[in-house]
Amino acid sequence: MKSRGWIRLAAAAIVALLFAMPVLWMIATSFKPPAEFVSESIALLPVAPTTEHYRAIASAHVAANFAASLVVAAGTVALALAAGFPAAYALARARLPARLDAGFLAFVLLLKLTPPIVLAVPLFQVLRTLGLIDTLAGLVLTYQAYTLPMAIWLLLGFVREVPTAYEETAEIDGAALPRRLWSIVLPIMRPGLLATTALLFVVAWNEFLFALLFIQTPSLFPLPLFIATRITEEENLWGQLMAVGVLAALPAMLCLGALLRHFGRAPEAGLTG
Amino acid sequence: MALLSPALVLLGLVAVYPLVRVATLSFFATEHGFEGARFVGLQNYVDLLDDRFFRRAAWNTLVFSLLATASEVGLGLLLALLVNPQFPGRRVVIVTLVLPYVLSTMVVTAIWRAWFHFDFGFLNNVLRATGAAPLEWLSSRDLALYALVLVDVWQTAPFTFLILLAGLQSIPTAIYEAAQIDGASPRAAFWAITAPLLLPHIAAAMLLRSIDTFKVFDKVYALTGGGPGLSTESLSTLTYKMSFRFSDIGHASAAAVLMIAIAGALGVVYARRAADRSGP
User: Fold this and answer.
1) Could you say which of B88, B101, B107 has the minimum Cβ distance to residue A245?
2) In B15-73, which ranges are E strands?
3) Could you give the CA distance from residue B30 to residue B28 in angstroms, rounded to a whole number?
4) Eight-state DSSP code of residue A118
5) Residue of A200, A113, A110 lying closest to A155 (CA atoms)
6) How many Å apart are CA B20 and CA B104, to the nearest integer?
């Protein structure tokens, strides 16, 4: 039995290594001088490691794009939670007619099905009317088409697990609704809240299409859009491109743990578009 | 109701209004802008169904979606079966396998654009090193769509892997122990226990992947731009070009409505299955 475990480990390690190759290649290339990657060599590790690509992107104001990504992702998560939590609570607690409940969930599913490009032209007009074209606030607003249904869907499950007894006791003691939510419901569902936050953050951090359509000022480009403008035929720039890729990948990787812990609950919330 | 209103206002603004608007616009010709839009009934739809570009994009999207979904579920299943039993280092293997799934599609395409490069790309370097001929991954009409499938498989097989691993973990070990006592071979146990109990999870993974692959935009945009020729144009990239390059809003809106209709059909299948499993 023991030796079979080791055989499985060897097989799994080989497969995992194959899967990790593109990511390892990205990290390694970000430390290679151009002569090493503009070549026919298949060596993975840099021979003469260099930080020149990181220094180059530091002086190219990538910090502004990193900040834009952070602001948009944080804003998107905050708005989705602020609007999604009360809605999820209402759906879980208020005894709505079953049909209304089902209707709402069907609408959430319809949004999950809708290709984002379908919403693009009307959303462009909405943003222009509100004066939010080419602003990060505009992105925070339009990303709700992805994140708000996800937030409601996930939080609904977590609220349903909070026993009503605590709230009923607090209500008898005279605690008003906002206070009951803040000091009873939210603390109990903290793990679920964290997982939801991590998932929403990854979605907003990685989004590309709406950023492409609604942002024109280069210093406001979120990282995926910045990367898209740098994907060129110019092989010499691969080092810089991969350095930006590493930067863009880091925050999402930090969310990996939270994602794995709670994945089994709602795979429907999937991340890619 | 007060609790629901912020969410309702937001969803109204970014989802309900756009959906209604796009459905309305699909009945208008907009060659003179929104002001001079004229009602043309179903003409936009008739034009599209007759349009070479639209048909090709629909065909490409179908091929991409079917191939990617089948490969991702197949590979995800193999990975899940490999990693399901306990073994030392299992946790590290799982985290490594899931890694591609949290990357931005733009990071993914940046890596693969370099890997597909004809002269210095990693894939062709490996082919040359093994004595094989290098391939024109993205510039060949016959290969480009499959190259896109390859990238999608790498990025999202981790997702199907996670669903199917969760499915395998949910099968009680007592069933296997009982089968072993009854003298069933591991192979017999797989077909009699694992396969039927995993089937709902396989179906769920297939549906979720077909829904997502049907929307494919980012990869096509950044890797091939829809080319060479029309060989990788997808419904999403074609709709994007009609809307924002050719400003043909009427036809773009009709294409959008057709996409929702097809996606909606997939959704009905999904909802039926969810209802069978007694809700979320």
Assistant:
1) B107
2) 28-29, 38-39
3) 6
4) G
5) A200
6) 30
CB of B100 less than 8 A from some CB of A: yes
Return the beta strands (E) in chain B as ranges.
28-29, 38-39
Q: Tokens 């939080």: give the residue.
A: A155
Q: Do A77 and A197 touch, CB atoms closer than 8 A?
A: yes
Q: What's the confidence (pLDDT) of residue A2?
A: 57
**CA pair distance B131, A70, nearest whole angstrom:** 46
Instruction: Answer yes or no: do A158 and A214 share one domain.
Output: yes
Averaged pLDDT for residues B31-44: 75
Contact A204, A271 (CB under 8 A): no
- Is there a single domain that holds both residue A79 and residue A182? yes
CB B217 within 8 A of CB A273: yes
Query: What are phi and psi for residue B137, nearest 5 degrees?
Result: -55, -50
Task: With H, G, I as helix, E, B as strand and everything else as coil, classify residue A60.
Answer: coil
**CA distance, residue A16 to nearest chain B CA (Å):** 6
As for how many domains chain A has, the answer is: 2
Could you report the predicted ipTM of this complex, rounded to two decimals?
Answer: 0.87
Pairing of strands B28-29, B38-39: antiparallel
Does A103 share its domain with A25? Answer: no
Q: What domain range is A162 assigned to?
A: 62-269
Q: What are phi and psi of B28, to 5 degrees?
A: -120, 150
> B5, B26, B35, B104: which to substitute to probe chain A, counting the most A Cβ within 10 Å?
B104
Per-residue confidence at A117, pLDDT binned at 50, 70, 90? Answer: very high
Cβ neighbours of B163 in A, within 8 Å: 267
pLDDT digits (tens, 9 = 90+) for B235-244: 999 999 988 8
Phi, psi of A214 (to 5 degrees): -110, -5
Does one domain contain both A179 and A230? yes
- Its pTM stands at 0.88
Give residue-wise pLDDT tens across range B197-230: 999 889 888 988 998 899 999 999 999 988 898 9
For the four alpha carbons of A263, A265, A269 and B1, in that order, the dihedral sign comes to negative
Tell me, what's the pLDDT at B280?
Answer: 37
Q: Name the residue among A225, A173, A266, A200 with its Cα closest to residue A69.
A: A225
CATH number of B40-276: 1.10.3720.10
User: Which of residues 159 through 198 in chain A touch B, CB cutoff 8 A?
Assistant: none
Question: How would you classify residue B228: left for phi > 0, otherwise alpha for psi between -120 and 50, otherwise beta?
Answer: beta
Angle at the Cα of A19 (from A16 to A21), degrees rounded to 5?
110
